[in-house]
Design goal:
about 0% strand
Length: about 375
């Protein structure tokens, strides 16, 4: 049979081909218009959601005070009143930060060339990575529990655990407000030493965690999330597929929902315990039992401080009070650093992502580092540095 077409058949075929191409063009145009509408809708909803988040976050302090002292007519300054205010304030703050930070980091890493960053940090740039992790921790004003959302985001982005640990250790220890307050309380020499020591503590902690390959002790779900992280980095530059806004949102929403479901209850339980310790543990106990300056008082102060819970800004007045009551400088700093860098609520939350072995290593490392810091500052203070 001949493959040639008659003139009529050719005209019919040409007409059919034109109709198909026209339908394709119309379909592509409709698809493009739909994507543009979804993009605009997503941006508008995102702006509104962020504005609502900011309004709610800005109202945490007055709302927690209203609940503690108006809804529940508790006495302001009483242990129970302080505990209730602390509980509602910190629970709302941590949950709001958890949702925002995990979503933003997951959204960014959905299209991020994760492997290139990871390979750089694991190669010649690893030392730089520890410094950057500690430096980023120093400029972020988070307490130990508020740092966990970023820690989760960095870990699931497959950033080496040692670098995320540098951030997790340094973030609660240093911020600009604490530096200003410490400058006025201790002078510029001790403030600079404190900042340097805080940075070094984070870097040493990160190096140690990588040296013992601590990432193998993360919880299975987190290891699975790391394994399933986007692999865009393996694609050559210029060949990586573009990820649209809705694909980013789907990935980020899934990550946020999964992590939130796993940790929200432990946030509430942990902050509740921290609130009780915050309101009912008297400062006088520390000065009566740790004020003599014996060598063992520093590790004891660290061990006592680790379960307690506050942030670096809130601990400065406590530090001043302890110093005025006669507690040695190094012992005071060791206690305060352990209080802000680790806490019982943080341990409960970290248990959801770490095994008991990794938690024990983490807390033991902090105990050793802060004990050495306390001994150093006691020695410097005795020599009138």
């Amino acid at each position: 049979m001949s493959n040639c077409c008659t003139g009529g058949e050719a005209r019919k075929k040409s007409s059919f081909s034109c109709q198909c191409e026209g339908q394709k063009a119309t379909s592509l145009q409709q698809h493009h218009e739909t994507r543009e509408i979804n993009k605009i809708r997503y941006i508008v909803i995102g702006i509104v959601a962020l504005a609502v988040w900011w309004v709610v976050y800005s109202g945490i302090v007055p709302l927690s005070q209203w609940i503690a002292y108006d809804l529940f007519p508790l006495e302001k300054g009483s242990p129970l009143g302080d505990s209730v205010e602390f509980f509602f304030y910190d629970t709302a703050k941590i949950l709001l930060l958890l949702v925002l930070m995990v979503y933003v980091i997951a959204w960014l890493r959905a299209g991020m060339h994760v492997e290139r960053v990871r390979n750089y940090l694991m190669g010649k740039g690893r030392g730089v990575g520890y410094f950057l992790g500690a430096g980023f921790g120093a400029i972020t004003p988070f307490c130990s529990c508020s740092s966990i959302p970023l820690f989760l985001g960095f870990t699931t982005a497959r950033i080496p655990l040692g670098i995320t640990m540098s951030f997790l250790i340094t973030s609660p220890l240093i911020n600009e407000i604490a530096v200003v307050l410490l400058w006025g309380l201790l002078g510029w020499k001790f403030t600079i030493i404190y900042v340097v020591v805080g940075m070094v503590a984070g870097i040493i902690g990160g190096v140690f965690m990588d040296a013992i390959r601590a990432e193998r002790w993360l919880q299975p779900f987190l290891l699975e999330a790391m394994k399933n992280a986007p692999q865009g980095m393996d694609i050559q530059p210029g060949q990586a597929p573009k990820i649209g806004l809705m694909e980013r949102h789907t990935f980020a929403y899934s990550e946020t929902s999964s992590i939130f479901r796993r940790v929200w209850l432990w946030v509430i339980v942990g902050v509740g315990l921290g609130a009780l310790l915050h309101g009912f543990v008297p400062q006088e106990w520390f000065t009566e039992n740790l004020g003599a300056g014996q060598w063992w008082s520093v590790p004891l102060a660290v061990a006592v401080g680790i379960p307690l819970y506050t942030n670096v800004t809130g601990i400065i007045p406590v530090m001043e009070s302890l110093l005025l009551k006669g507690l040695p400088l190094g012992t005071t700093l060791a206690f305060c650093m352990s209080t802000v860098a680790a806490s019982l609520p943080e341990v409960l939350m970290l248990k959801q992502v770490m095994s008991w072995k990794l938690l024990a290593v983490f807390l033991g490392m902090l105990l050793i580092i802060f004990t050495l810091v306390g001994w150093l500052f006691n020695l410097l203070h005795m020599q009138n540095f």
